[in-house]
Amino acid sequence: MILERFKALIFDMDGTLVDSMPLHLAAWMATAQEYGFQCDAQWLYAHGGVPSRKIAAKLASQQNLTLDPQQVAATKTAHYVARIASATPFPEMMSLVERAHGHWPMAIGTGSLHANAERILEQSGLGRFIHTVVAADDVLEHKPAPDTFLQAARLLQVKAEDCLVFEDTEIGCQAALAAGMACVMVVDGVPDWSGVRYP
């Protein structure tokens, strides 16, 4: 089995472990209405793992708008937190985490804020199995930079090349490969074991 080649597992959260991307999208749409910018669902999904303030800055630049990225991100986060109780794990990914528990150390590597990631871990039951979290406010450079996953490997005390990453976006996969880690893409909550990517 592919897992047996590795010594640790690192998971993106939104759209990978947890079906929370629709909640992020709804939060962005509500924020767009408040601030008068446009946002496309497909574009937002492609930028899963990128912190909200960076997404806000990109949107402002693309649409030639004067926006305060921090303020927009705070508004979007508030809308997301209001919906966060609806975030539930993908059944197949939850099963994978349960089976891996006790055999592989596991970490979260997410573009969400640390407090939100911890809240989802607690309410979803994933926190029983995964205790190490690296979030947007834990690193300086975000996906597609490798920093999130490299920090997770350091906290797990495992070499980067011995880590297997699970991601649902190309940006996240780029970050994993840049960290020197193999990556399994997760599509609609199901890992694609046939298409494991190696650095």
From TrEMBL:
The keyword Lipid metabolism does not apply. PANTHER family: FRUCTOSE-1-PHOSPHATE PHOSPHATASE, GLYCEROL-1-PHOSPHATE PHOSPHOHYDROLASE 1-RELATED. The keyword Hydrolase applies. Belongs to the HAD-like hydrolase superfamily. CbbY/CbbZ/Gph/YieH family. This is HAD family hydrolase. InterPro entries: B-phosphoglucomutase_hydrolase, HAD-like_sf, HAD-like_SPP, HAD-SF_hydro_IA, HAD_2, HAD_sf, PGP-like_dom2. One of its GO terms (molecular function) is hydrolase activity. It holds the Pfam family HAD_2. It comes from the Bacteria. Keywords: Hydrolase. Transmembrane segments: none annotated.
